[in-house]
Design a protein that fits this description.
about 180 residues; 9 helices
Length: about 180
Amino acid sequence: QKLVTSLARRKEPELRELYIQCVQEQGILYLQTGAYGKAEKNLLQAYQMVTADMNRDFLLTELSNNLAQVYDKLNIYDKALFYYKESLGRCQQSYSDNSLPCVILQNNIAGIHLKQDNISQAVNDYQQVVVQFEKLLPASDPLYITALNNLATAHRKNNHLSLAKQYLDRAQKLVKNHRV
């Protein structure tokens, strides 16, 4: 904590960035331990300290994603969606649209749509995610299997029970075959 406090007073660009990353890490620790209010406070503080002249899009991408996770945990889905979309936009500027980091963010956005009961959008999003995960990941990867399961859930909530069963069966077969 003394290090963070001493860094807060420094003006050198590299030390300022180190301070921002320390505040971010504190926020992530709060997020992981369920102290969501403290996580939000720290992550917003770090987010607001990153200035355009710093040229640190990767840091803003991470912070947007971290904030989205906090708001998801707090069930504030409109803010979670906002920050996930912001993070995705930055991700797509840095990587290809269908890179693994971007597809993971698309998966998170689909999850928010599902939680908001925007079922048709969640189905569309999860279908795209599954197609991309099939290209990027082995069938045994937990991200892929979870996306199949989430697509099954979205179809079930949309009363497309036969499609839900198909995707759930695929996920269960993969779990059984790969002992995930």
